[in-house]
Amino acid sequence: MPELPEVEVVRRGLGPHAVGRTIIGVEIRDPRSARRQAGGASGLEQMLVGTTVTAIARRGKFLWWRLADPDGADTGHALMTHLGMSGQLRVRSRAAVPAHDAASPGAAAPDAAPPDVDLPADLRAPAPSEGPASDPVRHLRIRLALDDGSHVDFIDQRLFGGLWTSPLVTADDGRTSAWGSPDDLLPRDAAHIARDVFDDAADLPAIARAIRRRRAPVKSLLLAQDLVSGIGNIYADEALWAARAHHATPGQALSQVRAHRILRACRAVMERALAVGGTSFDALYVNVDGRSGYFARSLEAYGREGEPCSRCGTALRRQVRSGRSCFFCPRCQRRR
DNA sequence: GAGCACCTGGCG
DNA sequence: CGCCAGGTGCTC
User: Which SUPFAM superfamilies does the record cross-reference, listed alphabetically (predicted)?
Assistant: First the structure.
């Protein structure tokens, strides 16, 4: 489920906690979360233990950890993290690790301050009370132990996400490869992903021209991660609503001005979402502290079938296209 | 491009 | 029971 703003919230939360730390242990509770790893669960452990995290980078919805050997040299492989539909990374200081995992009784101490994730102070919420039925810790799949006694937990209800290592390759345009990346290297498994709309190196007019060369529905083009990345079902619908465009309009039918406007709407709506910690409807998406973002209350289209459009009052509609819901205003968003 | 596979749930 | 869910990758 997490789209670009949600993954960026995780990237910002993870960096201050993990960069500079050495991975001292890897506990794989469900090997399916490591199924993309060459060599499987034991391969992942071998690749990670003893390495030091030097940066957390992100392109689109793909997040990766840059790793160095004890001598400080880059290992040449990144730890990839994809959250899929339901993945979370949660950081736990030593004292916050559940009691049954604590090495010694009585080790519990007041929790350290959580990492800053750039949420405005007035939007911070208390940690959710975790009921047994929806307890995300139930879906803990992989735990990374760091050398300061803390852990990073990968939690994933639906198992579409995962952790695996991927060798670094050079970005073909020679520019800094991604947000948070120190250089032009990126994992091979992210090399087919286009730059996202937050990326300084993304050329929106060029992406607009590429959209206009395709006859596919504009929404499916926005969701195709090899044209422009980071956009998922929620923000595609929100951007199309903001730009007054119909999801089924063929790319070829758009003027350059309209195609460019849609891309700028994607960037604008995702920037507003990032500023309030992303979108979450429930405990399934949370930041590294386990807290939810606040953009769900700002959604204009997604999930609002039957509700009045805030611009014109017309009841919003829902259509299913290639298995995914499209929410839109039938009056403001005309097919042209 | 569409369709399905990969999964575990919550809800009606 | 059937339908729904924030994603991606592979096949036709």
Answer: Glucocorticoid receptor-like (DNA-binding domain), N-terminal domain of MutM-like DNA repair proteins, S13-like H2TH domain
